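Annex B, item 7. Sequence and structure tokens for protein A, then protein B.
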Amino acid sequence: MARTLLGASIFGATLLAIMVRPYRIPEAAAAAVGALAMMAAGIVAPADAVGVLAGQLNVYGFFLGLMTISAIADQAGVFTALAGGAGRWAGGSSRRLLVGTFAIGTVITAFLSNDATALILTPAVFALVTRLRLPVLPYMFACTFIADTASFLLPVSNPINILIQDGLGGGLLPFLRYLLLPALLCIGLNLGAFLYLFRADLRQGYLLADLPSTEPSHRPYLRATLAVLGIIAVAFVLATSLGVPVAWVALGGAAGLLVLSAVHRRLGWGRLRREISWSLFVFISGMFLVVRGVENLGLTRSFGTALVDLAGRSPLRASLLTAGGSALGANLINNVPMALVMVSALRSIGTTPSSHQGLIYAAMFGCDLGPNLTTVGSLATMLWLLILRRKGLEVSSVQYFKLGIALVPVMLLLGGVLIWLRS
């Protein structure tokens, strides 16, 4: 009993430190201290810790490759060119520009993940709309909301998907079967709601002459980068359909872009090192071990059993509870640890791709979409806030929550029903 209380206290203290960040302690440091505490308490043995981390090589490779791909694409001017192209396509209409922002964000999220959309598209769109003297908030909210709303279009659209699929199994076809329709519905609802809620801000137009020049500094390099990105996108889809670890595609694509950059003499190692969030690897490694600690104590099994008991014999109630509970948890403890908790809980009750499959995708749906409710739901949203603060734009948690509460519950309800209908 004392060991269980100690493990639960370490888990709770770690999550609290991640959420509150006392004395501005980095999330990675809090997770690392929590993992060391679990090991010091004997709840996670050293051999167990090595085995847990060694089993996540696909996740590490995917994160590293994806961050490298996004950074090189940004250096090549891909995101700036896309934002400028949206401005020309909109033809002076701020409403059409918002639609274009959603469209670009959807494509980037689908093939390069939600992090690329929230963290790299945001500054490009900010620069565009401020130059055009348009209200900034609708477009900034579009960058972060579509990043999560479109993050369950494909398995590679959100690293959370890879975490859950690595832990519970699954492939491209079942993923699309359960989540493609909810994703398309949520994207449509998100766009429609934004066009209505920001209708007053979107009445103002702009002059095409005010659009910045999007002429790349090195056009052949930009074209070659776009071609390689297209190949990477196709390879991601093929890998998830054939069961090939996506880390190979991410790392291979990153290597290809690095060679391309070197050939064109456009490779900036200093900038590339700064673009890659090395602390993310410390954070997720720490959380893997902290969650393994509560798993070893049987706490995640109890959580999974309680979830099944609450659902009773109603598949609809199970789908809604799993999606809603995952979304709520993502906003309480961040979606990365919540995804790990759900993997452990569902695995403990025997959930596999051939058993209770809908619960796997309901958990994924909740962890992906949930962060649109608050500013602490995902690391991408928190970094999006930091980007805006550096630009001199403050977005309060209350502003974000008011927008999120108007959209997310409806999306979770409809998406949960659609997942149940596919079960």
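Protein B:
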Amino acid sequence: MSKLNNLPGSLLKFVARRPGAELGRIRSEASRRRFYRINWGKKSLVAMVYPEPSRTEVQRFQTVRKIYHDHGLRVPGIEEILNDQVVIQEDAGDLSLQRAWRTSGKSERCRLLTACRDILDKLAAVPPALATVRLDRARLKWEMDFFIKNFVSHYPVRACREMELGANLTTLVETIEPECVFAHRDFHSRNLLVLGKEIVMVDFQDSLLAPRHYDLVSLAFDSYLDLGRFRELLLSGHESATNELRQLRLTALQRNIKALGTFAYQTYECRHPAYARYIPRTIRHIQGHLQELASAEFEVFTRYFSALSK
């Protein structure tokens, strides 16, 4: 077994009961949880370890996982809950949609996105009442403040004051229609694992009630993966009405701005410079949204993000 630090005793005992088992860390930079792969013989499992024991967090994970399972949404199974800190899960592999996309031909890419669209339809069909948390305007506003604090502070533009940007961000949040559908919240190519012919969702424990297009735009305008012309497989049918198209783009604009705040925080505060590579693509997405919206009320955004690309 690999020598690893700060492992819970319950996990060490679980591994010790399986002669020949080996434990290896799974890289997960942005999460406070730690993940380990347990290999022995032809079998493997994944241990999810919370930073400290929390019955509330483990119970929430169980509850949300059951919602997914009950509605035909594929997520890893639970093998055993060791205690309030360690959950042993099915190993769904490490082939993310982001990685699978690079080596896939046209037909396989179409199949993958068709499967993703089916998942989005199933997520939207989950009864909204099952969500116990809402991505309401207060939370959306917090995300925009997070962007100001962590991104704008590192990427200032002299012609755009923080106050002006803040006012535009408030307008954006207030223009997005209220939350109404059950959503994964982080539905992007790194949280979608390709397992044979299936797509398995991970990092789903923060599911909540969100604006109608939230999960759709999270993948369609993914910062980690540029779908290019294949994006239409996801958007087809969602841009038929003028207001629906506007709401889709407004939601995508907010989602991508939020992502910039996260990338800057991970890059500069958490010292994970790999996240900086996704900033240019996210800015291009944002510029595309602003061009499609063609709205004078977001003129400050246009000036700010145009300056960043020069």
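Comment on protein B: The longest strand covers residues 34-40.
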